[in-house]
Write a structure and sequence with these properties.
Layout lengths: L17 E13 L5 H5 L2 E12 L15 H13 L6 H13 L4 E10 L9 E8 L2
Antiparallel strand pairs: 1-2, 2-3, 3-4
Helix pairs in contact: 2-3
């Protein structure tokens, strides 16, 4: 079956086209928590991010500057973690969502942070937030 060259550069017409940029199971060490040992000793956290991104005028562009890069997203998360101790996972999630939403192409951010080594009989504990551009 041959391909039709007229279809190669066609995207279905839709009002608002979104794509999702995601980071799954990013494992980092962070100073996170209210207990003295959590303020002193970095602990393992797992970060998941799902960004709803407006595709813009040319969704078929093959230019990295035209997309939200997951590599840039990871670097933002790492920078926030390097800034130092945070008491609450909720606060850390809000900071990550806020950093992601600074890119005007991002219309929504879902951030999940897990602490896998806290509760003995649980795989992990944590929170998930969802923020949208107003």
């Amino acid at each position: 079956m041959g391909s039709n060259p007229k279809l190669i550069h066609h995207v279905a017409d839709a009002g608002l086209r979104l794509r999702h940029v995601f980071v799954r199971d990013l494992e980092l060490k962070a100073l996170l928590g209210i207990h003295e040992h959590e303020k002193r000793d970095p602990q393992r956290i797992i970060v998941n991010i799902d960004l709803s991104v407006h595709e813009g005028k040319d969704p078929l562009s093959d230019d990295i500057s035209q997309v939200v890069s997951y590599e840039v997203v990871v670097k933002k998360v790492e920078k926030i973690i390097r800034e130092g101790h945070v008491n609450l996972v909720e606060t850390l999630a809000e900071r990550i969502a806020e950093a992601c939403l600074k890119d005007k192409r991002v219309v929504g951010a879902r951030v999940r942070i897990e602490k896998p080594d806290i509760i003995k009989n649980a795989r992990s504990v944590g929170i998930e937030i969802e923020r949208t551009r107003s």
